[in-house]
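Subject: sequence -> structure tokens, single chain

Hey, anyone have a minute? Need the predicted structure for the following. Not urgent.
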Amino acid sequence: MTESNNQQRIDVTITYLEQTQRPVLPTPGRPPCKLALLRVENPPIHFYRYCYRLVGDPYNWVSRRRLDDEALSRIIHDPSVYIYVLYVDGAPGGFAEIDARNAENCDIKFFGLAPDFLGRGLGRYFLTNIVERAWSIGPKRVRLETCTLDHAAALPLYQKLGFRVYDRQAGVVELIDQPPAPL
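Reply:
Had a minute. Here:
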């Protein structure tokens, strides 16, 4: 870790993964709790930021935190961007974003569970559903990326669900010093 202009910089390895054909995924076992997976159409900016930070803060997700409301709105309110929230017993427990603005490549830009919901068997269930939704859009391939700051189970889960590594690159994450998202 290095510091530059009062910003902490962390070196990471970014792994790029893809599926070039729709996988035949086993139906995931439904975890023993009340679940709802809902698409959030035209989410209010504050709600999007809440979900993004709820899931991403433990892993230093910063890209969307750098965007002002207007720039973020142009992305998340695009009809080819799909935002999903996994509700667990009525509470937001997971967040995913599918970017289908490029007709050939459907990118799962963000995916994860809130810290309180880790280790409960929800990851495979949630990701299987998100992958199915991405393929239902009709792309030639579905892509996602992860880095060494993400949860240790992320990369193995992606590979178990049929994603193949197609590139690895060194990168740097500049941490933004902001308080945690309000609950």
